[in-house]
Amino acid sequence: MTTTAEKTEPLTLLGQLVDSAIKAGADSADAVMFDSASLSANCRLGRIEEIERSEAQDIGLRVMIGQRQATVSTTDLMPQSLWLLVERAVAMARSAPEDPYCGLAERELLASSPLPELDLFDETTVSPEDLEETARAVEDAARAVRGVTNSEGSSASVSTMHTVLVTSDGFAGEYRTTYHGFSVSVLAEGDDGMERDYDFSSARFRSDLESPEEVGRRAGNRAVRRINPRKPKTARVPVVFEPRVASSIIGHLASAANGQAVARGTSFLKDQMGKAVFAPGIRIVDDPLRPRGLSSRPFDGEGVAASALDLVTDGVLSNWLLDSATARQLGLRSNGRARRSTSSPPAPGTSNLYMAPGSVSPDALISDIKSGFYVTELIGMGVNPVTGDYSKGAAGFWIENGKITYPVSEITIAGNLKDMFRALAPADDLEFRIGTDAPTIRIDGMTVAGA
Fold it and tell me: Are residues 219 and 244 in the same domain?
C-alpha cells in the first residue's frame, strides 16, 4: 500500500487527470481506478464446462463546479480519450442541477501515510489447472454423499483488484486485494421430489480456504437432510436463523441505518438514533480494518481514513452509515463509509459488518423451544424499508422439544423488523465468511405461515 510518497503509474495517471479537470474549469475533482483480473473454472458432473479469464481497467472522474457535479467513466486509457473524458465531465457539471451537499471529503478526515497494513493481497500463483482440480474435488465430494442424485455444478475462482484514488485536495492512495473462492450446489431426491442445497468457502488468501472435500460433503449432507419436507401449521413460534441466513437480518439494519435512507425519510429507524432498538448487550460493528477481511480497506471511496464503527452498542442505535454528502445533509461528519463505483458519486455502505457473538451455544439457544422453526434458506425480498414489515419465504427444519427434527419448506415467516430486533438473541458461533456475518440468532414471536 502506498500514498503520494510512492507514486505508481496509476497514481500518476489519475493525478494528471484531476489536474486536467482543474485546468479545464473544475473547482475540485477526484478520480478512481479499478484494475481487475479474474480466472474461474466451472465443473458439472465431473467435466470442466468452462474456463473463463477476464481483465478490466475502469476509470471514473468526478468534477465539481460550485454546487454542481458530474461523474463520467471510461475503459479507454488512451491520452486523447482521457482528455475527452475531462471535457465531457466539465461540460456536464456546468449543466447539472445544483446539489448543496456535494463536494470532496473534509481534508482533516483523509487517510495519511503510512496506510494500515491489512494483509489483503495474496502473492500465490493460481493456474487454471489448480482451479479445475478444486472444482472437481468439491463436486466429487458432494456427489459422493449417499442420497445425492444430481449436481447443478461447482466453480472455483481467483481474482485481484487494484484500487486507486486521487483527489484535488491532495489525497492519493492505493491498495490491492485478492479473492479466492469455490462453491458447489447439488440435488437429492426423495418421495416428494428433489431438494437442493449448496456450500462454499471464500477468503483473501488461498491458504485460508477450507478443504474442497469438507465443503463438498457439507453441501451434500445439507441437500440430503432436506428431502421429504413437511409443511407445519400456521403458528407464532420462536424462529432460529442459522448463520448463513442470520447475516441478512443485520443487512436489513445496515439498509435502515444508511444515511441516504435516513436523509430521505425512507428508513423505519429514522427517528431512533440514541434509542434502544435491540436488547441490552447486542453489539453490531462495521470494521474495515479487519486483517484479511473480505471487505477490508485502508480508506473509503472518498479517501477518508478507515476506522471501526459501532452501529449498535449495548442494544442502542449509535451511528448512521455516512459518506460526506449524506453527512452534510444530516448536519454530521462523514464516518468513512463511502463506497464508490466509476460511474456514480460516492454513497454510504458497509465494509466488514458483523454482530458480536453471544454467550450461549446454538444448542443452548434452542434447548427450551417446545415448538419452533430453524431457518436455513430465505426466499424473496419481502422487506418494507419504510415500515419495517418483514415477510419472506423460507425453508429449514422444525424444532421440537429443543431438538432440530424434520425438514420443512414452502412456508412464510413474517414480523416487523422493529419487533424482531428487540426480540433477537445471538449464539456464540460467529464466523467471518462473507463480509456481512452473524452468529446463529433466535427471534421469538414470529408468525410462521404453513398449512
Answer: no
